[in-house]
Design goal:
2 domains; 21% helix; lpxc deacetylase, domain 1; five-stranded mixed beta sheet; alpha+beta; Ribosomal Protein S5, domain 2; 30% strand; 21 strands
Length: 306
C-alpha cells in the first residue's frame, strides 16, 4: 500500500549553495500524489515542481529540478533520500525559497522527524519499478548501471587523491531499515581546496565545517571527525538513493555506481526509460512490500551522532 506523512514536519536553515535561509514543510499528501515541491514564494499557477527524472537540469554540485515555467528547486537529494529510505511515497513539500536547508549535511534530521512521528498508510495499491535487464550510463570515467535483482540493492566505489578519503567501496541491501542504520547520517563531503575555490566563486555559501566533511590530504578538518570511517562512500550512496527516487517509485534492482554523481545517475534513469524492455511496473503484493526501503524501520535504529 502507499504511504504519506502523518503530520506536517517543518525545518528551517541555510541552503548549502545559496546560503539563504529557507523554511521547508513536509506535508501529508493523498494517494497517487507522488512527491512534489511547492514554491510558496512564487505565484500558485507555476509554483509546483514535481520530483521527476525528466525535469532534472544538469548541475555538477547537486540535483536541480525545474518545471516548464522555469521555477526550480535545487539540492533535493537529501530530502528525497529521507523520504525514500523511510518509505514515504506521497508528500507535498512547501518551500519559501529555492533550496532546502542543508541542516547537518545528511538526511538524518529529515529521517529523524519522519520516524519520530510515523507514517500514514493509504488505502491504495503501490506500484514499484522492477529492472528486467542491465542498463548502463557512462560520463567520462564515471559510470552507473542498474541490473536485475530480487531486492533493492546499492553498491558504490569512489577514488579520491586525498588519503583521508582515498578508495572506498560499499554494497548493501536497502531492505529492513538499512538506509536508516547505515546511510542516513552520512554527511556531504569535499576537499578543502575545492571549498576555497567555490567560496571564491560565490558557491557553497551555506557550507561550513559543521554541515560538511572537509578534508585536506590525510586530515579531516571538520570538528569531531568522521561519523563513519567510510562516510564519504556512504554519502554517495545516500545521494544516489535520493536521485533514483526521481523515477517516481521504489526500484527493485541493483544500482552500481563507479565514481558517479548526480548527472550520472540522472543519465542512467534517462537511459532506463528510453528502453521499455529494461523495466516493468509491478503492483506491489505483500511479499514485495516487505522488502521495500522503510518497511520494518523504527526510530531505535537511527544512529546516535554527536
Amino acid at each position: 500500500m502507499q504511504s504519506t506523512l502523518s503530520i506536517p514536519l517543518r525545518f528551517s536553515g541555510c541552503g548549502l549553495h545559496s546560503g539563504v535561509t529557507t523554511v521547508i514543510t513536509l506535508c501529508p499528501a493523498p494517494a497517487d500524489y507522488g512527491i512534489r515541491f511547492v514554491r510558496t514564494d512564487q505565484p500558485a499557477e507555476c509554483a509546483v515542481v514535481s520530483a521527476a527524472w525528466d525535469l532534472v537540469e544538469i548541475s555538477p554540485l547537486c540535483t536541480k529540478i525545474i518545471n516548464h515555467a522555469g521555477i526550480s528547486v535545487s539540492t533535493v537529494e537529501h530530502v528525497l533520500a529521507a523520504l525514500a529510505g523511510c518509505g514515504v511515497h506521497n508528500a507535498r513539500i512547501e518551500m519559501d525559497g529555492q533550496e532546502p536547508p542543508i541542516l547537518d549535511g545528511s538526511a538524518r534530521p529529515f529521517a529523524l522527524e519522519i520516524l519520530r512521528h510515523g507514517i500514514k498508510h493509504l488505502d491504495a495499491p503501490l506500484k514499484v519499478l522492477r529492472i528486467l535487464r542491465e542498463v548502463t550510463y557512462q560520463s567520462g570515467s564515471a559510470w552507473a548501471k542498474l541490473i536485475p535483482h530480487s531486492e533493492p540493492w546499492i553498491s558504490f566505489h569512489i577514488d579520491f587523491e586525498d588519503s583521508a578519503i582515498g578508495i572506498q567501496q560499499k554494497s548493501l541491501t536497502l531492505t529492513n531499515g538499512s538506509f536508516i542504520r547505515e546511510l542516513c547520517d552520512s554527511r556531504t563531503f569535499c576537499r578543502n581546496k575545492d571549498v576555497q575555490a567555490m567560496w571564491a566563486n560565490g558557491l557553497a555559501l551555506g557550507g561550513t565545517m559543521e554541515n560538511a566533511v572537509v578534508v585536506d590530504g590525510d586530515t579531516v578538518l571538520s570538528p569531531g571527525g568522521l561519523r563513519h570511517k567510510d562516510e564519504a562512500v556512504r554519502h554517495k550512496m545516500l545521494d544516489a538513493l535520493g536521485d533514483l527516487y526521481l523515477a517516481g517509485a521504489p526500484i527493485i534492482g541493483h544500482y552500481i555506481g563507479h565514481c558517479s554523481g548526480h548527472e550520472t545517475t540522472n543519465g542512467l534513469l534517462r537511459a532506463l526509460f528510453q528502453d521499455e524492455d529494461a523495466y516493468e511496473w509491478v503492483k506491489c503484493d505483500s511479499d514485495l512490500y516487505r522488502i521495500l526501503p522503510g518497511v520494518n524501520t523504527s526510530l531505535a535504529e537511527l544512529p546516535l551522532v554527536a
